[in-house]
Amino acid sequence: MAPYNSKGGSIMEEKAYILKGFQELSSVQQKMLMQARMAMQKARNFVLQRYKVGATALLEGGEMRSAFNNERRVVQGMRCAEDNLLGDLDDEGLGDQLVAIAIVSQSENLEDTEPIPPCGTCRTIIQEYAERSGRYGDLEILYVNANFEEEGVRVSTIGKLYPEPFSPHQK
Fold first, then answer.
1. Any idea which of 55-64, 67-76, 97-106, 136-145 has the lowest mean pLDDT?
2. Distance in angstroms (rounded) separating the CA atoms of residues 127 and 34
3. pTM of this prediction?
4. CA 81 to CA 106: how far, in whole Å?
5. Sheet arrangement for strand 153-157
6. Is 98 in contact with 82 (CB distance < 8 Å)?
7. pLDDT digits (tens, 9 = 90+) for 116-153
8. Which domains, from first to last, does the chain contain?
9. All residues at 6 or more sequence positions from 109 whose CB lies less than 8 Å from its CB, including other chains
């Protein structure tokens, strides 16, 4: 039996994203995706998951920062692009200025065009930064494959991708 949402419908029927064409996005969203794709192309170590991933953060004031995934042959050596990106923002004292994140992925198998949303760990980390930025649940996330101009862009929020996060602020 499928789990049900608060309206009585199956949550399996609801999508956690809206599919948009690249041209439907704002110029800022388009720039974020282009920068994330450039970061993804720098990824060299993707031996375990066989995906290259780039992520770009939009900060308050319009500044953008990017990072890519870095994997080693041991599971503990894996670092997702989102985790690298947010860690870098923290190092620079910018972790509380996060407005949105764009994620671009490409499979080693170029025929696999399914975009990859953030993993569970990254959803937790993104939610933490969303809270710190005052965007609890509303932080925008764009995720696509490397051919996003043709395939479309998935637009969501951390609240939709991670609807019931743990928070030390829960009552």
1. 67-76
2. 24
3. 0.84
4. 13
5. 18-20, 153-157, 140-145, 98-107, 51-59, 64-68
6. no
7. 899 999 999 999 999 999 998 899 999 999 888 888 89
8. 16-161 (3.40.140.10)
9. 50
